[in-house]
Write a structure and sequence with these properties.
The complex is a heterodimer of chains A (891) and B (110). Chain A is an alpha+beta fold and 891 residues long. Chain A contains 27 helices and 22 strands. The chains are: A alpha+beta (891), B mainly alpha (110).
Chain lengths: 891, 110
């Protein structure tokens, strides 16, 4: 491939930081070329390090050249060293001026500290999720391949089967390395008893794609072939420390899992994880998955070959799939393979939330800057004389400008330092409350990127709030100003500017508060959704039994019977049941089904649930018509199902479902003639936001006859109890151990906790945006107050004359109020318009409320207008209480 | 830029390195050549901005060239000193030699 290689992050940074005459030439291109060669010769890690080192050097050199007044070594610009000397003097003067007005300085530093600190905190999370490299070299190059089938729900994305993967990887030339993996749970047999550990099964290609090396030993050998089947297991650092006491002679030891024993071939370093932080071992993938081409549960990870784009890889895969379809007779026409960046896909779901947060804190910062700009302008009016004098003494525009700007930057720097501390505090709060289920959460710590961001934002804010005042100061009227005792000439301009900035604050505050109002409203609606089951007094837990005593269906049946009997004997347990999918739980099983009356042409999608025991009673799910499963439904009878109301109504109309037949097609293969024996009310299964598509319930004993893998060995127990469910955990565990000594129990939660978790994110969203909008509101109200106060001070003479000419206190009051509220009114109008159109950006996170909900928006405006009235009142009262004689005498 | 532009010391070294390397004159090998003769690491920033300047002064040209399979076919930019570049080098050399003339006690090692 004879193309210039793509620019890595560091190169893009260079392009951005360096002045154009320096970066537009050979520099970045040559660096990229050399990087590409180094990558091939010395590996990714070394090449990336090299690139990073070069970048830092180049930037430092350029900065040094610039400070010395040496423009890229060609001696253009101010005399050498002059720039540095000027800068030092400006900083000293800024320090003096900051000390001279402590109140103003503290106000500015505190406002900036809070506003930048909030941004720092959010960036901290963004950094950990998106920017910090994953513990693999060049993580941005990792890609994953998924099957995309529009209209199947759940993001429409599913995975590959092992057969698919083996065929695809054998024929594809798009990938330099490519491997498959799945996360799994194994029962680890230790001297303490059986324990469940999470791990992953990987092909050797997946290891190659990750490009990592173990701390001890080796990775599974390439000899194991494409599927990677073998007996070598790689341990995580934590597993190795816990189970082997960090013994370095662990290699060759045997790890006993319930179903197989594996030999330790390597130990990964402490910071390594894949694909998520949980897995503690990495085993070869089981060859048994080679049986079923439509068992789509393997995820893949790979790196594209040099010069191959994502699009090209997709085109190639499509071609191979088309050929495979012909050979295997499989029909995958309604789905296609997509190639995505792994980093994007991995953290993509959190991007909405973080985008929202970033927007909110950005608004807060913008308001803060507008506010500080106003403060600075009002303050600098009192320093006009100073600037005019300096100008008269020969200071040029540039010097005056840079001095004023440096003063803002020094203030901003102090604010930025405070922001680092505040940002740290906010991060701690965010992580411990709402961001608790973010991926990579444990990595949210301050690092150099966060500091760099804060520094950058500090400089940016310093310029943002300092630019306009600096320009005004530098333009200070010289001789005219000094001659007059008080400057009134530029008053009008100044008030226009101040009012404009105040209105801008109102606009931003209104937009942010509208968003907060919508999110809050949406959360309240979500929290009051009827889930379709009774969550009170219900304990749920995942259970798993394995081993020779649980191989045959009859053994499982016996176990279940014994389990219910024993559980019923536990004081406090009212109903006990089993299901493969716990409500509000992590996973679900969905399938395509057909209404047999309509034939096999029209497909529908439904969730499948395999239940047992007193499931419907335990959860308070009502049987609307027909009956529940009971002891008359024998395992070998023709299969019977219950369906949810939505599904029943869709096909047969209310009340006509009993006795109808369905056909299910899924990974479980085609199942015909399922007879409906009952209809139950709808249940919000996996979360509260989406309307149920329909659920088909199977009886466990009937189901496992035909489909070995959902056999009742693994699933969730649902226990309806009297009193506090948590208090029963110990006695339930003990009872289950009596029936099955090696039973594994995990994920014990009350159903209310599970419900709480599903609304946790909306609650957090509403809470956090509301907090930031409260800050924004407060800042903007302070801004209005400040501007109006200043304007009253400037207009004292005019107001006094009006008063002397007969204007009453009330007239003066309403005059000032009107001016203040006019600014507020314009701000609200513009803010509302933006909220009306911009609200659409929120629609994906809103539930049950339109993004332009008139009630919310008018409530927000009204509340803001009332608050603004209050903040206008005090300056106005000052105007109303004016003593004309005193004022006119003073002037 | 172009005519009559001066030549810095480092720029001279770069041009000479290119001439020494002949067909092999790509940026990494120039850097290596300079490092070997100067006994210190050459900053890529300095090197590339020198190359950039020399190109603007029309003392060198370059062409992107596919390379041997050993580098997995990554393209490389091959640099070449123009006639103008050679001319200015010759002038410098002549000037230097003239100035060094008769200073044997300085440049002959003791």
């Amino acid at each position: 491939m004879n193309s210039i290689p793509p620019t890595p992050f560091w190169g893009r940074l260079l392009l951005w930081v360096l002045p154009k005459e320096k970066s537009s030439g050979l520099l970045v291109e040559e660096l990229n070329l050399e990087y590409a060669v180094k990558r091939d010769q010395q590996g990714l890690t070394q090449a990336s390090q090299w690139y990073r080192r070069q970048t830092v050097k180049i930037i430092l050199h350029s900065f040094r050249d610039w400070l010395a007044g040496d423009r890229w070594g060609r001696g253009i610009g101010p005399a050498k060293g002059q720039r540095l000397a000027n800068l030092a003097r400006d900083i000293r003067m800024a320090g003096r001026s900051i000390r001279k007005s402590p109140a103003h300085s503290i106000a500015v530093i505190a406002t900036l500290g809070i506003a930048i600190g909030a941004n720092t905190a959010v960036f901290n999370a963004v950094n950990a999720l998106f920017l910090r490299p994953l513990p693999y070299p060049a993580p941005e190059e990792l890609v994953m391949v998924n099957r995309f089938s529009p209209g199947t729900g759940n993001g429409d994305v599913s995975n590959l089967s092992l057969l698919d993967f083996v065929d695809l990887s054998a024929r594809s030339e798009s990938f330099a390395q490519w491997g498959a993996y799945r996360t799994s749970r194994e029962t680890h047999l230790t001297s303490r008893g059986a324990e469940e550990v999470q791990g992953a099964e990987m092909t050797s290609g997946a290891w190659q794609a990750l490009g990592v090396t173990p701390m001890l030993g080796t990775l599974p050998d390439e000899v194991e072939g494409a599927t990677g089947t073998g007996h070598a297991v790689v341990l995580s650092h934590s597993f190795w420390t816990r189970e082997f006491g960090a013994d370095s002679s662990v290699l060759g030891s045997v790890v006993d899992f319930q179903d197989r024993s594996l030999m330790v071939s390597g130990v990964m370093p402490e910071n390594f994880y894949f694909p998520t932080p949980e897995p503690e071992f990495w085993a070869p993938i089981s060859g048994s998955y080679l049986e079923n081409r439509s068992a789509w549960f393997l995820e893949t990870v790979g790196r594209l070959a040099a010069g191959v784009t994502i699009e090209a890889a997709e085109v190639e895969l499509d071609r191979i799939v088309a050929a495979l379809d012909v050979e295997t007779g499989q029909d995958t026409e309604d789905s296609e393979l997509i190639v995505r960046s792994r980093l994007d896909a991995y953290v993509g779901e959190s991007s909405t939330l973080l985008g929202l947060l970033a927007g909110a804190v950005g608004f807060v910062l913008a308001i803060a800057c507008a506010n500080i700009a106003n403060l600075s302008i009002t303050k600098s009016s009192s320093r006009m004389r100073e600037f005019a004098l300096r100008k008269a003494l020969g200071a040029g525009y540039g010097r005056l400008f840079s001095q004023a700007l440096v003063e803002s930057l020094v203030l901003a720097t102090l604010g930025g330092a405070l922001a680092l501390g505040i940002g740290y505090g906010i991060t701690e709060i965010l992580v411990s409350t709402g961001l608790s289920d973010l991926p990579r959460r444990e990595e949210i710590t301050m690092d150099w990127r966060v500091v760099l961001f804060t520094v950058g934002l500090t400089v940016f804010s310093g310029i943002a709030f300092g630019l306009v005042p600096a320009m005004r100061n530098a333009r200070a009227p010289s001789a005219d100003y000094l001659r007059e005792s008080s400057g009134t000439g530029s008053n009008k301009d100044r008030m226009k500017l101040l009012n404009g900035l105040a209105a801008l604050q109102v606009v931003l505050a209104i937009v942010l508060t509208s968003a907060a109002g919508l999110l809050l409203n949406s959360f309240l609606r979500l929290a009051s959704v009827e889930p379709g089951f009774v969550a009170e007094n219900t304990l749920t837990m995942r259970m798993r039994v394995e081993g020779d005593s649980y191989r045959e269906p009859e053994q499982i049946d016996q176990f279940h019977t014994a389990m219910y009997e024993r559980l019923k004997a536990v004081p406090g347990i009212v109903h006990a049941a089993f299901t493969n999918v716990v409500p509000q739980g992590p996973n679900s099983l969905s399938a395509t089904y057909y209404d047999l009356a309509l034939g096999l042409t029209q497909e529908y999608s439904a969730d499948l649930e395999v239940v047992d025991g007193e499931y419907f009673t335990a959860l308070g799910i009502r049987v609307q018509t027909g009956r529940q499963f009971d002891e008359t439904d024998l395992p070998d009878d023709p299969m019977k199902v219950l369906v949810s109301q939505t599904l029943a109504d869709r096909h047969w109309g209310r009340g006509n479902a009993i006795g109808q037949t369905l056909s299910i097609d899924s990974e479980l293969r085609l199942e015909n003639n399922l007879t409906v024996i009952g209809v139950v009310n709808d249940v919000k299964k996996s979360n509260l936001e989406y309307d149920p598509t329909g659920i088909v319930y199977f009886d466990r004993a009937q189901f496992r006859r035909r489909h070995g893998f959902v056999s009742g060995r693994v699933g969730h127990l649902v226990l309806k109890v009297e009193g506090d469910p948590v208090a029963l955990t110990a006695s339930v565990t003990a009872a289950l151990r009596e029936v099955a000594p090696r039973i594994i129990i995990a994920d014990v939660k009350t159903l209310n906790e599970r419900l709480g978790l599903t609304v946790a994110e909306p609650r957090f969203r509403a809470w956090i945006v509301a907090s930031f909008s409260a800050i924004a509101l407060l800042l903007s109200l302070i801004g209005i107050y400040g501007v109006l106060n200043f304007s009253v001070a400037q207009r004292l003479r005019e107001l006094a004359i009006r008063n002397a000419l007969g204007a009453t206190s009330n007239q003066l009051l309403s005059n000032v109020m009107f001016r203040g509220m006019a600014v507020v009114g314009i701000g609200i109008f513009v803010g509302l318009s933006i909220a009306l159109f911009g609200g659409r950006a929120l629609s994906s996170v809103l539930y049950g409320i339109a993004p332009n909900d008139p009630m919310t928006l008018s409530a927000v405006s009204l509340a803001f207008a009332l608050a603004a009235l209050a903040s206008c009142y005090f300056p106005a009262r000052r105007a109303a209480r004016i003593d004309p004689q005193a004022v006119l005498r003073d002037q | 830029m172009g005519k009559n532009a001066g030549l810095g010391e480092f720029e001279q070294l770069v041009l000479l390195a290119i001439l020494q390397l002949k067909d092999d004159a790509n940026a990494p090998s120039i850097a290596q050549c300079l490092e070997e003769s100067a006994q210190r690491e050459v900053s890529r920033g300095a090197l590339y901005s020198a190359l950039d300047r020399l190109e603007k002064k029309e003392f060198l040209t370059w062409a992107v060239k596919a390379t041997a399979a050993g580098d997995r076919g990554h393209p490389k930019r091959r640099f070449e000193v123009t006639e103008e570049g050679k001319g200015v080098l010759r002038n410098y050399r002549a000037a230097l030699l003239e100035l060094w003339d008769g200073l044997e006690e300085v440049w002959v090692a003791r």
